Inverse folding.
């Protein structure tokens, strides 16, 4: 009979490995496009590259410690390690929700018709991408600054305080309820704000796609299979990403809140909440890889790169290749 730690360790291993490989692949594709194939660049590529980076850091800073602890490596982090790791993890997780919201809003503006009130903003929207990234970083770094002082490693204490406790770190309730409530309020308002705009943009895109489908339905009535434009395919991909994010966000948040306020600690539920919170960073690159044809083209172009010639003499190269 396998223990729950071993089961969680196997799940975290496959989740982290699969997510890291997928995110690394997408980062390599975006870097290759930005440097060598700028003609293939899309306006959403910079947002997707930022999202992929945030997802990679979220997976590594959460999945790797959970996996090590599940496989029996207890007390792997001291106070400084816990504070640094949890701070980076929560900042990157916050960046993920902010960037996903930006992606959905940006795509909603992109596909809006010329008669829409957002039509005037289409040409200006790309100029606000980098300032939005800077705002997201500052916002999340300030929100989670309390993590540095409220997290300790289990190595230095045998007391389990009330609150959320992982297998290698735990939260200290220092009695300063003003700072605690301010931090929780900031996180709640941030999540509500970005989830609201994410949902609004998603509903708006669904309405636009439905109206567009009704307008062109008579054109494809004699066709065996409908023809989707690149904008439609990109919108459907973003809607799938938003749906995945919202589902996993609410599942992990519900379990986490239950774990925090229940009187008896449940280690398995804590591990389940952590696993669901890392599902979106792990599955996001798989959705992008399956929907972006440039991934296969860039993979082929990278695979067809030949090593440099050993000789400048064509005749000598021919002799070498024959032998």
């Amino acid at each position: 009979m396998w223990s729950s730690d071993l089961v969680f360790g196997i799940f975290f291993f496959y989740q982290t490995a699969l997510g890291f490989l997928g995110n690394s692949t997408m980062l390599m594709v975006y870097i290759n496009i930005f440097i060598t194939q700028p003609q293939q660049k899309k306006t959403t590529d910079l947002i997707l590259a930022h999202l992929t980076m945030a997802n990679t850091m979220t997976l590594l800073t959460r999945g790797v410690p959970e996996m090590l602890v599940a496989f029996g490596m207890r007390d792997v982090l001291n106070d400084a390690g816990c504070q640094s790791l949890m701070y980076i993890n929560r900042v990157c997780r916050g960046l993920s929700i902010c960037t996903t919201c930006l992606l959905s809003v940006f795509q909603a503006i992109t596909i809006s018709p010329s008669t829409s009130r957002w039509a005037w903003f289409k040409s200006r929207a790309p100029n606000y991408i980098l300032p939005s990234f800077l705002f997201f970083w500052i916002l999340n770094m300030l929100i989670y600054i309390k993590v540095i002082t409220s997290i300790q490693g289990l190595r230095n204490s045998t007391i389990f305080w009330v609150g959320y406790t992982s297998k290698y770190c735990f939260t200290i309730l220092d009695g300063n309820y003003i700072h605690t409530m301010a931090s929780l309020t900031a996180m709640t308002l941030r999540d509500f704000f970005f989830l609201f705009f994410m949902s609004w943009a998603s509903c708006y895109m669904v309405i636009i796609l439905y109206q567009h489908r009704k307008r062109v339905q008579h054109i494809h009535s004699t066709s065996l299979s409908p023809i989707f434009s690149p904008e439609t395919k990109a919108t459907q991909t973003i809607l799938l990403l938003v749906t995945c994010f919202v589902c996993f966000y609410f599942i992990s948040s519900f379990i986490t809140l239950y774990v925090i306020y229940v009187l008896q600690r449940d280690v398995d539920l804590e591990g389940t909440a952590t696993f669901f919170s890392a599902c979106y960073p792990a599955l996001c690159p798989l959705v992008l890889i399956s929907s972006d044809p440039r991934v296969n083209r860039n993979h082929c172009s990278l695979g067809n790169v030949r090593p440099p010639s050993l000789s400048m003499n064509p005749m000598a190269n021919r002799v070498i290749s024959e032998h």
User: Anything to note?
Assistant: Residues 202 and 239 are 6 Å apart (CA to CA). Strands lie at 151-153, 169-171. The chain has one domain: 4-113+130-152+170-218+228-294.
